[in-house]
Design brief:
Length: about 160
């Protein structure tokens, strides 16, 4: 899914219906996206950084989780444990700080997502042009990252079958 082509709105101007187990009054693509994530084995957020922060669209999506998941346990098992990050941002522009920002949500959960940080300057590219993916070394790193994620899922499935 390409987030820029989706209608993702932040929480705003409501009566906190989600805290009263009522339906969120905001009508956008967010519930459908979370449902697709629940049904997926792996969720990868590829997030650009702006001024040493993750994009505002990521934060809008993340904050809406409180209206989707009715318990933190369900949220953790069906969503958080599937998340992985690809952060695009130069170290001199705070890419490492944005990475920490992404990981902050996992600080007390006992597990961490897999992460890949792409400082575009290392590849002589401008991060806003969208051409980083054209670099053979970047493609190779992405392929290796995805293979590792698939192996992790296979390992978890195997362990789950053995424990039954």
């Amino acid at each position: 899914m390409k987030a820029s082509q989706l209608d993702i709105r932040s929480c705003n101007h409501c009566n906190y219906e989600c805290f009263a187990n009522k339906e969120c009054p905001i009508k956008d693509d967010t519930p459908d996206i979370y449902k697709k994530c629940e049904n997926a084995d792996i969720v990868i957020f590829a997030i650009p950084t702006y001024g040493a922060h993750l994009s505002s669209m990521y934060f809008a999506f993340a904050e809406r989780s409180q209206a989707i998941f009715k318990s933190f346990d369900h949220y953790t098992k069906s969503f958080l444990k599937k998340i992985n990050f690809i952060i695009v941002g130069n170290l001199s522009a705070g890419g490492d700080m944005a990475l920490h920002e992404a990981l902050y949500s996992f600080a007390n959960l006992g597990f961490w997502p897999e992460v890949l940080l792409f400082p575009s300057r290392e590849y002589r590219k401008n991060s806003i042009n969208g051409d980083l993916i054209e670099v053979p070394e970047v493609k190779k790193r992405l392929d290796e990252f995805v293979k590792m994620l698939v192996k992790n899922v296979e390992r978890r499935r195997s362990a789950s079958v053995k424990s039954k």
